[in-house]
Structures are given as structure tokens and as C-alpha cells.
Amino acid sequence: MNDQDITAAEGFGKDAVRLDEGHVVGQGGIPDRFENPGLPPHVPRGADLSEAAAKRAEKQVAGLFTLSILGTVLFVLAYFLVDIRTMAYLPGIGDMSLQHVLLGVGMGLALLGIGLGAVHWAKTLMPDEEVVEMRHPMRSSDADRDEVVRIMKEEGGKAQLSRRPLLKYTLGGAMSLFALPVLLPVLGGLGPMPQKSMSLTFWNGGPSGPGEEPAFTPMRLMRDPENTAIKASDVTIGSVFHVLPEGLLDLEHGVLEEKAKAAVLLMRLDPSDIKSQKELDWGHQGIVAYSKICTHVGCPVGLYEQGTHHLLCPCHQSTFDVTDDCKVIFGPAKRPLPQLKITVDDEGYLVSAQPFREAVGPSFWERG
């Protein structure tokens, strides 16, 4: 079927124009010109009609730029004066590094002040009349180009920087100081090394916050989440327990942070299947305890294959051999899982004999 047949079948005459050609049906083509609707009438703002309103807007913009300056100062002071290990409790979030909180607040205020100040300045003081320039050649004549330069200079003056020096100085201060939060991390890093943040866990004797290392005392291994102690007789060959140190789940604050480092998997193997003498010595009658935190990126290792004695990390499939010091046999992890040395107390409950002898978790800079 040709175009004429299609046109006839659609009920239009032979002179009609198809819709898919971009024309109006039955009009015989596009008109040469459309009427210019023009621009909407300009509505004066308060600052255009009243110098008092303009002065008030100027102070508001300057106040926002000053807020940006204060945010930058807060960032710099927190960077140099606040110890990264000083913790602060935030409702609904938990314990966080006070320095990180102040850095975030300072950076946020610095950005917010400049952004809101620039927007408020443009909406209240800068000219808001729409202007249309009809120009068909891509390059204007030299006279037109000179006129554009003249208009830019003239209109730039209407931004009132020269008339309102308070805006100029506060904007200059905010923009020049804002470079500091960007440069400081590049030049000096984000503070001191975390030191023993991953080496100290609750197994060392309590919360691993800033300050001196807590004195070690043996801790019972508690079921997670039941928070009940485990006797050696409770652990059968092939069974797996998710355990935490005694007292951790009783904390008022910081449970999640401490749990993230102190989580342990407890398993019992036939001692004849264990290849490492150190693993036998650090366990109890084939019962062994290993950190649950993968040494790749810190995911929880929770999949145990009893037949192969393999621990599998579900995130990136790193696989650890429980019979041989939990060495990596597959996947991206580069280090074995740290072993927790355990024994039993006078009542037959499993307890820690010493804390982890190496940092748990991913291979960060503080690990040897």
C-alpha cells in the first residue's frame, strides 16, 4: 500500500499532509512564522522598591556567608584539636567519633551557607528581568560584541558588590576559607591512625574505647542472642555456636560497635581432623573459636560446611579451612581468621584464655 492509499484509507484528501511528516493535518504545511507571545510582565520585588528591604536582604545573605565561615572554622578546629578516639553518643545512632561528627557538621554548614547565600542573593538583589536578544548569525558583529562586553560590565555592577562591600567581604571569606576542608584531608589525612581500634576488642577486658588498654580477665563465651553461658559438654561434633564475650550484651551503649569486632564462631571437631598443633593447644578437646569477621572486607563469616570443615563468607566467597588455623583456601581474603584461645572454668563453662593476639577484620594498616 503506498502513501496515497494510506491517506485515502484514513479519510483525508490527496492534498492532506501526514502526521508523521511533522505537519498539521489538512493545513498544507507549516506557517512561515508564529506570533511571538512575548515575556511575562516583570513583578518588582521588595528589594527593588525599598532600600530598607534591600539592606535587610543584604544582611541575610551576609549572615549565610558568615555561617559558612563558622562551619569552616569548626571543621579546622575539630581537625586539629579533637582526638579521633573521643566518642560521643548520638540518640538513635549510637557511639561515634566526636571528631567525625564535628567534621561532618562543619562541612555541612560551610556548604549550606554558601549555597543558600548565593541563592538568596540572586533572588532578592540581583536583577531578575528577562531579556531576549534576537540573533540569527552565529557570530555577532564587532559592534554587537563590544556592546555585550559593555552590558556585562554594566549589569555586573548591578550585583551591588561595589555598593554593598559587606557582601563582597563575607562572600570572599566564605569562598576562600572553604578551600581548607578540601585541602586539609589531602595534605594531612583525616587525623591520626586508629591505632588499636581493631586490635582491642571486648575480649581484652571490656569496651574498647579511647584510653588505656583494659586489664584482661577470662570471660565466659555466651550464646548470641540468648546471652547464656556454654558448657563444653553442650558443644557436639559438627555443631556451631555464635558467641560473644560475657557482659557485652548487657551494655547500655555501643553494643553494635563492640559486637561487630568481638563476634566469634565456636565449633567442635574431631581432634584427629585438626592439622595444626597451635589450633589444638588454643582449643579444648577439639572445640575451637575463631573470629566471625572476614579478613577481606569484614563481612560476617557464618556458613560452616561440616563435611569439609570449611567456613564460607557469603559476601565474596572467601573460604577458610577450620582444620588448619582457618587459612584461606579460596577467595579474595588474604589472612586466616584470628583464633581465640579458650579453656574451661571450674564449673565446666567455656571461657577465654587470652584475647585475640592479632587485629580482627580486614587487612588494615595496623595489622602486621
What does this structure look like?
The protein is of the alpha+beta class and 368 residues long. It has three domains: 1-34, no CATH class; 46-188; 202-352, Rieske Iron-sulfur Protein. 33% of the residues lie in helices and 13% in strands. It has nine helices and 13 strands. The protein has helices at 3-9, 46-49, 51-81, 98-124, 142-157, 165-177, 179-188, 255-262, 277-282, and strands spanning 87-90, 94-97, 221-223, 240-245, 264-268, 287-291, 303-305, 310-312, 319-321, 327-330, 339-340, 342-344, 350-352. The strands form four sheets. It has a five-stranded antiparallel sheet. A four-stranded antiparallel sheet has the order 7-8-9-10, with no helix packed on it. It has a two-stranded antiparallel ribbon with strand order 1-2. Strand 1 (87-90) and strand 2 form a beta hairpin. Helix 3 (51-81) packs parallel to helix 6. The longest helix has 31 residues, at 51-81. The chain is elongated, with a radius of gyration of 36 Å. The model is unreliable at 5-9 and 17-23 (pLDDT under 50). Keywords: 2Fe-2S, Cell membrane, Disulfide bond, Electron transport, Iron, Iron-sulfur, Membrane, Metal-binding, Oxidoreductase, Respiratory chain, Transmembrane, Transmembrane helix, Transport. One of its GO terms (cellular component) is plasma membrane. It is a multi-pass membrane protein. Its main location: membrane. Belongs to the Rieske iron-sulfur protein family.
